[in-house]
Amino acid sequence: MDSEFRELYQEIIMDHNRKPRNFRKMEDATHRLDGMNPLCGDQYTIYLKVKDDIIEDVSFEGSGCAISKASASVMTNVLKGKTVQEAEKYFNFFHKMVTGEIDHPEEYLDTMGKLVAFAGVAEFPVRVKCATLPWHTMHNSLHGSQDKVTTEENN
Amino acid sequence: MMSVASMNVSKKTIEFDARKYREDFPILKETVHGLPLVYLDNAATTQKPRQVIDALTSYYEHDNANVHRAIHQLGERATAGYEGARKRVARFIGAKSEKQIIFTRGTTEAINLVASAWGRKFVEAGDEIILSEMEHHSNLIPWQLLAKDVGARLRFIPFDENGTLDFNVFEQILSSKTKLIAITHMSNVFGTINPIKRIIRMAHDRGVPVLLDGAQSVPHLPVDVEHLDCDFMAFSAHKMLGPTGIGVLYGKMQQLENMNPYQGGGEMINSVWLDSATWAEIPHKFEAGTPNIAGAFGFAAAIDYLEQVGMENITLYEQELTSYAIEKMLEIPGMTIYGSAPERGGAVSFNLGDIHPHDLSHFLDQQGVAVRAGHHCAQTIMRKLNIAATTRASFYFYNTFEEIDYFIDQLIKASEFFGL
To answer: For the segment B335-381, what is each residue's pLDDT rounded down to a tens digit?
Structure first.
């Protein structure tokens, strides 16, 4: 098998797929938004509790492929306790990384931690939408969008 | 008990040399990720034999001109080829006349044509159209649009856990309000071959016409429209060795004659004044604009090829291949197959444990196996099954038992990889 494929599904992704973190409904969320990929049926709800610009809590619910679910799970772990500005920074990094715009993602291990586990997505263009769906949903939600996020919007 | 049954399915009980036919398909020699291509996405589109590719090339190299207009030599050749394709299609499905063959862009446009040109003339507020719950979106959405516009109501024949239709419900909803039944001949999700003759007989007893979605059946079964007695049938060339962008609406003469035009433009007119026009004869009345001429040449070559292989042979071989695949698949722990109708074709939808179809199909692709993952343009079926998606393997006569074995091995590897 292609080693890049094996790398994509490395331990972190398999682990977060099997045991997603922060996988729950949040009753007192300040932000809540649905995201879906109509082509493959991935569907998530992202919950955020933001107070004084700090993301006090973040969780998600839904179903989808291993890449999208692990991405949501890792995202919730990373964002908890961060400011909205920091979330924006992670979002931008993640988006650039999975679309192949960052040359040596492994150099960002210190600052970006487990996000770097998704660097392999860049090798598989068809999976970029899987990895970014939770992030786009979170991003739009933080920016006050009430519109469901879909990977297949008409541009 | 199972082992006795499984021993009865031998790898080959009929004489059919798929390998010989494979030689005609250049793409089947492709490698993907360094591995031989195992193409099991035939319900989406089939591959094309050299004969079809050559027909397209030859048309553009030798015959290219517009049809029905030019007096010159090329115009005559293009017209002869285009109209010749119509005759081949008519013969292939047992239509009485080639006038009953309308070329469209595909199944979807053929159904939209009926919804528009027939539906908007004959379906009124309060009328009902009966569909099944296993329709492809292409045989659902056109009727939704029509029903919404004219105030008609859609009724549905449900399917059971085997993926077969519930005739009790059908009998209940078939009424004097029913204006049309539009139904698939073979399900692209379950593989079910619906008892179409029975449906048509029941419909005709009440004077209700039936449109058949033949996208999955015409490529795989001998289909005779006179024998079935369907009023309309829609199908696509690209699912039966032909090029994309061309398909067929078959209609009974009387139905076609009563229909409004579909699109307006050149080709479909007889005489035109500034404020009015008269329509060309059937079938040209429904073919506005320059048609897919090259596609028709390729389509004719595809039909020639299928006739040479023999539709009965194709059906028998695919049934053996499909039975073999299903039996082997069910031996894998965690395998769920959706649809177990007694009469079925070679589209097999499944899930393997809790591996998401997107992950599984990506894994299989890495091994050279092309399958489809998703809702297969049938979100309503997925919703009823309470699943987001399935993986689907679908076969054609050029697939081999060895390819099935390889596919099964890769499913087992996927189970291990994803830790089932």
So the answer is: 999 999 999 999 999 999 999 999 999 999 999 999 999 888 888 88
Residue A131 lies in a domain: yes
Which of B368, B370, B376 lies closest to B349, judged by CA? Answer: B376
Which A positions 13-32 lie with beta carbon below 8 A of chain B? 14, 18
Give dist(CA A22, CA A19) in Å, integer: 10
Total residues belonging to chain A: 155
Check if B230 is active-site: no
Instruction: Assess if residue A151 is contained within a domain.
Output: no
The structural domains of chain B, ordered by start, are 2-48+310-417 (3.90.1150.10), 52-308 (3.40.640.10)
Indicate the pairing of strand B210-213 with strand B232-236. parallel
Q: Which two tokens stand for residue A125?
A: 């263009």
Q: Look up the ipTM and state it.
A: 0.85
Is A62 part of a structural domain of the chain? yes
Query: Could you tell me how many CB contacts below 8 A there are between chain A and chain B?
Result: 46
C-beta atoms of A2 and B366 within 8 A: yes
In a domain, A69, yes or no: yes
Q: Searching chain A, which residue's CA lies closest to the CA of residue B379? A: A41
DSSP label at B63?
Answer: I
Exactly one of B150, B332, B377, B388 is catalytic; name it.
B377
A138–chain B nearest CA distance, Å: 22
- In 3D space, the residue among A97, A95, A79 whose CA is nearest the CA of residue A87 turns out to be A79
User: What residues of chain A lie within 8 A of the CB of B389, using their CB?
Assistant: 40-41
Cα distances from A25 to residues A22, A57, A70, A155, B17, in angstroms, run 9, 11, 17, 31, 57
B47-103 per-position pLDDT tens digit: 999 999 999 999 999 999 999 877 899 999 999 999 999 999 999 999 999 999 999
Place of tokens 């689907």: B392
Instruction: Identify which of A28, A60, A51, A32 has the alpha carbon closest to the alpha carbon of residue A147.
Output: A32
Enumerate the residues of chain A whose CB falls inside 8 A of the CB of residue B358: 40, 42, 64-65, 67, 130
Residue A72: CB atoms within 10 A of its CB come to 32
Distance of residue B360 Cα from the nearest chain A Cα, in angstroms: 9
In chain B, what residues touch A2 (CB-CB under 8 Å)? 33, 366
Q: A residues 81-140 near B, CB within 8 Å?
A: 124, 126-127, 130
